[in-house]
Amino acid sequence: MTTTTDAGSRRIGAPEPSGRKPAKRSTDRAQAERRLGIKLAAPAAILMLAVTAFPILYAIWLSLQRYDLRNPDDKGFVGLSNYLLVLGDGTWWTAVGSTTLITVVSVFLELVIGLAFALVMHRAIFGRRTVRTAILVPYGIITVISAFAFAFAVAPDTGFLPGSVDPLSSTGGSFATIILTEVWKTTPFMSLLLLAGLATVPEELQEAAKVDGATAWQRLWKITLPNMKGAIMVALLFRALDAFRIFDTVYVQTAGALNTQTISGLGYNALVSRVNLGLGSAISILLFLMIIAIAFVFVKLFKTNLGTVKGGD
Amino acid sequence: MTATTLGAEQVGAGGGRNLEAGGPRKPRGNRATEPGRSLGWKLGVVAIVAYAMFPVLWILSLSLKSDATIADGKLIPREITGQNYRDIFTSGEFVRPLINSIGISLITTLIAVVIAAFAAYAIARLDFPGKGLLLSGALAIAMFPPVSIIGPLFDMWRVTGLYDTWPGLILPYLTFALPLAIWTLAAFFREIPFDLEQAAQVDGATPYQAFRKVILPLALPGVFTSAIIVFIFCWNDFLFSISLTSTQNARTVPAATAFFTASSNFVNPTGQIAAAAIVVTVPIIIMVLVFQRRIVAGLTAGAVKG
């Protein structure tokens, strides 16, 4: 633990050299430190609890109610019937399917392209600064704007596609456009995470393999990728969780038409457009549970070490 | 280019944490002397820059086209007009949301960074119970689907009068901005050699002087970077803005541009949306250009431990 060593080195004047279980004088100091720590962290902790934990509990409560703002008097506890209604509905499963499709395809493409970008950024000497700046442009652009950019580019009137092709008029074309937009927007983030992982691969291993006659391709598969497995898993986890709650791009490009509706979109429609707070909350709680499940699968099954994400503590 | 500058770049990119990994690398120097390979990397650089800039360029092109030529399918406009920009700045459909966006994002950033700085300092420097819980709780919130709290907020804001107001958006933004700021700040603060503070005090500085003259200058870049990342997050939000606002009173630019389409049906709004897009994108691009190295460090801070 870095903290222990920090604390130890700060108490360098104290007589106890071991520092972990110090004698009385340091215990007072440790207590003072603890109090100060709690005081400093409290505002952030309280604020996060107030604006997240409370709404989430409230959402769970809402999801167990019959509560439609168009009919506010007809309100009451209905148990799990909202959930049963959602799970028994075809539109829910269509949304689950399209959200999964978008997540899996776009995260996979982002991994492949992001890795290529990371390798270029890692190795390139000429234009290193330029490329790292350029790659931040998609990250800095508002998602809604990038969604418009791609929608305009493929539109038959304002677009750059030949003839009168209109991808957004078919299901396949819509998914392709949505995924293309997502990939463009978020690959840079993926590639920066991977670049940080690349920097941790020992250069000596590469050199040794090169001396032994390994080709560039072999070095990539046998040395680079295995050594940055942790970074890859963390990047995949972050992006998968983020992609699974996709909303903006779909709202702008198709508004959920042609079976492209996502779970977030379905929840938004129920909550805001149809002001059915009970049903909408059930949808959003289900999405929440699925996100937890995805994180759980990554952490347990793929042994993604979130400890590395936290930078050690 | 010397090995030393390369090393410096590397340190910047790794968030300053990979000092060992980022030292001067002789092998890379050798690689540069292989002409074929270095050409390949150069092409890679060109490809990435094209990838990143192309959509921005076509949006820029659309924003400069007149209504008559907007559908000509040409990347380079035949004639350049500022009409779309004049339209959005005189229509009132854009100016007010722009002010909302700037105000709400700035206030959120300020609050989030100040509160997060206290927490991150405690996390990086002090030993206190619940530290791990705070960090993992923050991570959990950051991963949280925003749509899950839209319903409760919609219901509560309706009753409390926060619906369609600035605070009504600032509060939910803080939820997601705080974890982001705590994470990046904690990662930056861990890099600060706090022993220097002791050294300054041994040399006769008061605790306040030691903090102000030694620690603060080292901490400021991290604070600033977190502020940029948080600002971009708020600037980008769409879901809260369309769910918790109904008028120009608090609606931000992303939501307003989405409604451009619906409102002006007599004329193709593409050019105006494109112009609005350029107006909100250019400041961010300039910010990114200036602070490139820090943002890269901030985005990956703590993600992969070197």
What does this structure look like?
The complex is a heterodimer of chains A (313) and B (306). Chain A is mainly alpha-helical. Chain A is 72% helix and 1% strand. Chain A has 15 helices and 2 strands. Chain A has helices at residues 2-10, 24-63, 81-87, 90-123, 128-134, 136-140, 143-154, 171-198, 203-211, 216-227, 229-244, 248-253, 263-273, 277-301, 306-309; strands spanning 65-66, 76-77. Chain A starts with a helix and ends with a helix. Chain B has 14 helices and no strands. Chains A and B meet through helix 1, helix 2, helix 4, helix 5 and helix 6 of A and helix 1, helix 2, helix 3, helix 5 and helix 6 of B.
Characteristic key phrases:
heterodimer; A: 313 residues; mainly alpha; MetI-like fold; two-stranded antiparallel ribbon; 15 helices; globular; disordered C terminus; B: 306 residues; 2 domains; 14 helices; 0% strand; disordered N terminus
